[in-house]
Amino acid sequence: MTDRPLRIEAITFDLDDTLWDNHGVMVATETGHYAWLDDELADWLRLRGRMPRQRFAERFPLESFEQRRRALARAHPLHRGDFTWLRERALREMLGEYGLDPAAAEQWAGATMERFMALRHRVAPHPEVEPLLTSLGERYRLASITNGNVEIERLSLGRHFPVAIAAGAMLAPKPDARPFLAALARLATAPARALHVGDSWREDVEPARRLGMQVAWISPHVDHTPMPPGVHRLDHVRELPELLTRLTGRPH
Fold it and tell me: Are 3 and 244 in contact (CB under 8 A)?
């Protein structure tokens, strides 16, 4: 327990690498949707007798796609955290340079992003997450705050989050304070009565701490260096109930 138990009313969660491991998901999504575009576009062009000398992925390797997105983020700083916008815009530009007319480029970019989003949502939450959120939802108001483009309502976990903030889409990616403030406002909770759970020091810990929230930092690769006041390091989200017991003085 703490010397003075805290009153916590709400918990906000980061998603990627907090509730599931995201690296493998993104590798499969990145390569999978791009290979899909290369194959489907080649078939479509072949049927129309328009197959260029190079296939799309030969003309624009995946690395070129990544470079184009970074260039767009620099050219359009307001959209730097809106990954869906950056991806679709980059695809439209490259498809146009490949020879497609604007309507076809828009159509294929949209279809490719549909494929991307289907793969993007093949996440596997840690097995403890479902019962954890069910239990926490009985006594706390819950929200998700993510810089990623997972649409939490497309996952079964979405039912646990009546408040879901897509920080990139609102053009205010973490560590901007606005997605935290938006979540707190919709939760009708003051920062001092809220806990944020996330894996990034820069994007989760620092902004939440500046607002006066308690923070559970999921960081299994950091030693046991003393944390600043209000920051509590955990190896895994499964340790959250024990932390809440210490903070609030109530068993979880």
Answer: no
What are the tens digits of pLDDT across the range 184-227? 999 999 999 999 999 999 999 999 999 999 999 999 987 777 89
Tokens of 27: 């590798």
Q: Residue for token digits 């479509």?
A: 44
pLDDT digits (tens, 9 = 90+) for 74-113: 999 999 999 999 999 999 999 999 999 999 999 999 999 9
**Which strands, in side-by-side order, build the sheet including 10-13?**
163-166, 141-146, 10-13, 194-198, 214-218, 231-234
Q: Domains along the chain?
A: 10-21+124-248 (3.40.50.1000), 24-120 (1.20.120.1600)
Does the predicted model carry a pTM greater than 0.85?
Answer: yes
What whole-number distance in Å separates Cα of residue 15 and Cα of residue 11? 13
Rounded CA-CA distance 121/117 in Å is 6
Report yes or no: 192 and 162 within 8 Å, Cβ to Cβ: no
Question: From the centroid of its chain, how far is CA 58?
Answer: 30
